[in-house]
Amino acid sequence: MEFPYIRQSGPGGDDSLKQARRLTPEEVINVCDPEEFDFETTEEVPALAGMIGQERATRAMEFGLRMNGTGYNIFMAGPPGTGKTTYAVNMAGLMAGKKPVPRDWVYVYNFDRPDQPQAISLRPGFGRLFVQYMSELVTDAAAEIAKVFESEHYEKERQELMLSLHRKGEEIFKEVEAQIRPYGFALSHGPTGFLTIPLDARGQPLSREDFEALPESYRKLLEERSRVVQQILSDGMRRVRAVERETREALRKLDRDLANAALEPLFRRVAEAFPKEPKVAAYLERVQADMVDRLHVFRTTEERKPPLPMFGPSPDERKETLQRYAVNLLVDHSQSRGAPVVVEANPTYYNLLGKVEFVGHMGGLTTNHTQIKAGALHRANGGYLILQAMDVLMSPGAWEALKRALKTSRLYIEALGAQAGFVPMRSMRPEPIPLDVKVILIGNPRLYHMLHQYDEDFDKLFKVRADFDVEMDRNPANLMGYASFISSHSRREALRHFDRTAVAKIIEFSSRLADDQRKLSTRFGEIVDILYEANAWAEASGMPVVNGDHVKQAIEEKIYRSNLMEEKIQEAIQRGRLLVDVSGRVVGQVNGLSVMGIGDHFFGRPSRITARIYMGEKGVVNIERETELSGRIHDKGLLTLIGYLGGRYAQNRPLTLSASITFEQLYSGVDGDSASSAELYALLSALAGLPIDQGIAVTGSINQYGQIQPIGGVNEKIEGFFAACKALGMTGRQGVVIPVQNVENLMLKDEVVEAVRDGRFHIWAISTVDEGLALLTGVPAGEPDEQGQYPPDTVHGRVHARLEELAQGLKAFGVRGAHAPGARRTYPEVEEPEPVPRDDGEAPW
Fold this sequence. Notes:
By secondary structure, the protein is of the alpha/beta class.
């Protein structure tokens, strides 16, 4: 096919002749030659160390992990599937191995404030040891105390104290009796205590009858003396009670001394196992004192229960007492090597900050310090915590709690409702733990910018940004890096190794993902999917090694599973339900190209774009915009098109025309400016009356100077039109016009590349509108002379003539219409009223 010569115009243009360039098969794909690799299979390639193609991100990560200042937490920004999480875990693991193991943390009962359990830190591995020692201590203490109080020595000491009490009591009462006898009274021991009994003249006790028979005067004398006697007796009883108190104190002291003597070696053993731990020593002193205060719980064991329950502790009391001495191991580093690296997959409020659990008991809920559970921040304390930013933000209260912990360097465990002030219920408030952790948040760049803009704390807390790119240079070093990645993944996942033809196909697939011949994709998640599936096809075919055919099959099968909608659209085109012409020539009609996405599958779809010209002054009407099916970027593209028309054709006179442009059979909306060049071609074709070759589809945006600008999805667009041509019949003249800047983005399917090589399908690269006009119409675009006039046999000359014709016709119609029968007459002395704008800015008539 021959191409007309046209001139470039606009900024930077000159008068040198330009023409649309037909691309060679080598230009539409950057083939990876397997001979570039000096290995037969990836089994010969060493495993990947580190990360490839992310120098900026790796430098930022290394800096952030080294920095120990406040707020130097890291936000890893990049699209999903670029290996951020894996890299974060690996890098943090390397740094963690060089740091010391953090201390263990336990919670114990607070004897002064039971609702505020006490936190104790211990050397790594000593937390588990402390739990074991305390468990053994409680068991041994209960046995020793029970043994002490069942011993003969204790019984002998106790009996001596009781006998001493008895002797002192008898002596007191003898003294009392000696004091009251001169008053005519004696002591008698009754069931309710000691009583005073009056005596007769012979010193014998008087019965009630004898007392009543006494003379009145003697009875009165005895009654008066009885008051003195009662006072003497009261004094004696006070002395007896004092002796009893002394005896009880002596018994208590005996109990405590014996208990302390029995417990001292047990507690000394535990204290000696944890030297240089002052909080442990203080806690052990409190435990020993509490045990001595609660000896009644330990006097009996489970094997020696008292005969009657009322004489011993209740089961609940015994259980509650033993729980007081239990140690809650919150963070255990007994198996750690270096600092911890924690990946929290579900960063809810409680999973991050920890919680206090409740248990049902007697129809209610109870809790104690043993029900305190650690959160991810506790486990990562002293090391690294890796979180997905979106998961943290989506969990109620989690983001604010994380920020509060980082700002205060303290870990508070409290209920979410209490923390927010919504549930003023009484609960435990464990002692806060000092926090020293580096948080690594993983998210996309959009989320980073939103947090940066709307959260004033974000910049202070996450000072390091590690940006992960979606692509890297396709150079020999990165090609071998890809081979190393395939090798390490095959080893780690026990997959078959890949030969160099398979690696070459993976490289081509990677460049296709990157939409760039000179780049490789860093979306390793999608690469890994192909590795798994290619391995499965190699296994199904019984091959020991994955080759290029297996990789190609994996890619095709992956597409096939997702392209049902694409096939339905191609079927509709083939059956004539979607009107697309791929042959012939039509005025005002061109094939535009768009990209559709169904899930993770994107494909190109040709659409018929038509333009109609008619007399009027409405300008160019975008039917999609009028029906609210057009996006803002598409509207911008059309306004840019109008700017081009004005700059090209309305320098010496007004642009007078009415035109409508639309995507035929489009019902779901359109956005983007990649069809603006196609819309311009349809419009100019309609104005010039020149037909457009329907076997050529067009993509590319334009600027106001007529330069063609690059677009996205070029591979899918070309392949979509190729599929339509294949369905409706190949003519050998069909092809696609693309911006010249998009040539380096071409990584077409093998089928399209073969058609280009055989001359059955063509791809042209253009840089200006004029190049596209000449190619589509077969007529030169034309250049203006010194007077701004175009040759009449050019596209622009024809357009200029048609615009002049429309203007003259509108002018003539206006003059005739003013004098036509029934026409409204105007009078110069009467001014027309100003139109009142409506809400949409248009005049009401």
